[in-house]
Structure formats: structure tokens, C-alpha cells
Amino acid sequence: xxxxxxxxxxxxxxxxxxxxxxxxxxxxxxxxxxxxxxxxxxxxxxxxxxxxxxxxxxxxxxxxxxxxxxxxxxxxxxxxxxxxxxxxxxxxxxxxxxxxxxxxxxxxxxxxxxxxxxxxxxxxxxxxxxxxxxxxxxxxxxxxxxxxxxxxxxxxxxxxxxxxxxxxxxxxxxxxxxxxxxxxxxxxxxxxxxxxxxxxxxxxxxxxxxxxxxxxxxxxxxxxxxxxxxxxxxxxxxxxxxxxxxxxxxxxxxxxxxxxxxxxxxxxxxxxxxxxxxx
Length: 279
Fold this sequence. Notes:
The chain is α+β, with helices and mostly antiparallel strands and about 280 residues long. It has helices at about 15, 80-90, 150-160, 165-170, 185-195; strands spanning about 5, 25, 30, 60-65, 75-80, 95, 110-115, 115-125, 135, 140-145, 175-180, 180-185, 200-210, 215-220, 225-230, 245-255, 255-265, 270-275. It comes from Cohnella boryungensis.
């Protein structure tokens, strides 16, 4: 018998499904696909990592933006032996799932470095303590591996403890805001031009910092037709962990003020001002 498959986020296709506008990263939900043959992306000769032999020297984490590739703007890296042992054991002991996954945008991308090079993974951890997580290889996203609840909780805590500084965000190309300062506003201008021209894809990643210096992320991905907007405050330890996504068809401008409209839902609003002086 097939085992029920669980994932952190399911794809919500606007035109085809008409499902709710705001997607939340909560507890895993069942997949709608039951095929026995895994769906692979990339190398047809894919081989899983030999966890017994692998000597991991570094694990780099980024916030995922798409399926099938590792987002290059890193949140941070782990290099000490204790942390590497945690990641290695969590992934080694994960249980391989049967059937073929139907997945949405992952929460995180991880790159494991060893003497043979880099291996990329997609990771879902959710927000509820005691729940199980999931990972896939970046180039084999049809096959999932279920993490234990204990390892899921520990990895979630470890990743959210990373210090993503303002300087790092600027170096990554984020449009950085907070405390009256803004950086990389040229990236915002390029994104606006892409949307206004129509048909040209573009993206803008806004990182705002709280008074305590903790980041809140707002990501906008334009595919030539609609803007996928994601709000993510899970690295703000003073807030309620939230990661929500909606799709909008218009970017409106009034002077230096921008907002999204014609969205799937009014439950997730976006407003951004370029009024402050750029650094």
C-alpha cells in the first residue's frame, strides 16, 4: 500500500485550480500525486549521496525562490563539527517516501560541500513544533525524504538562529530598508521597469530590519504575467513566524509609493516607498 506523502507547501496554480490566494507555510499537507515512478529534474544519471561515506565540510543555507535550483543569495553557512553532524545525521536518517511528489516552492535551499563538490537540496520545515519536515535533492524533486520531528525542530531552530546582517543583505543584492535607510534601490527600479514593459521577467527581494536588527523578507517574482509576492518574518524572534504568498496582476505607483493590486486576496498587502535617501 502506498504511504501517504506529506509536504510543507503544495503548488497553488492560479489558472488551473482557483485555490485560495494566500498560501501559508504550516504543517505538511498530503500530495495529490500517487505515481510510483519518481519525477527527476536535471541529470538522468542522478545518484543519491552516500551519507555513510560523505565528509561534509560546509552547509550553506538560502531562502528558496524556485524549484530545481539553489538560490545563490545565502542566509549563512555552518562549518563547525557539531552543526555539520546535525545536518548529516538528520538527512542520513530521513525516511525515503514512496510515490512521486507534487511540490510547491521550498522554504530553504541547502548546499552540502564535500571533497567531491556541492550537492543541492530543497528543504521544508514548517512552523509547528513536533511536526515532520521534508527534503528533496534539487535535481530529483520527485522523490522526498521525511525528517524526524526531533531533527525538524533542531534544524528549524538552527537555521533561524543565523545572523543575516544588513551588510550581507546589501552584498546579496537585496533592496534593504529599515530605520530610515534604503540600499540597492536600483534593483527596485529595474524590477518596476520589467513589470511596466510587460513580458519581461524580473524579481525584487526586499529585506527590512526591525529595531532589534532582525530581518523581514518581502520577495516579488514577476513571470511576465503575474507577480508572486511572499512575506516572510520567520527570522524575527519577536514576531509570530509567518510565511505567506499571494499572486497579483498589477503594480501601482503614486509618486514614490508602490503597491500591489488585483491580487488573489486582500489578506496580504504590499506597499513600498522609495522616498528615503538611497545609500
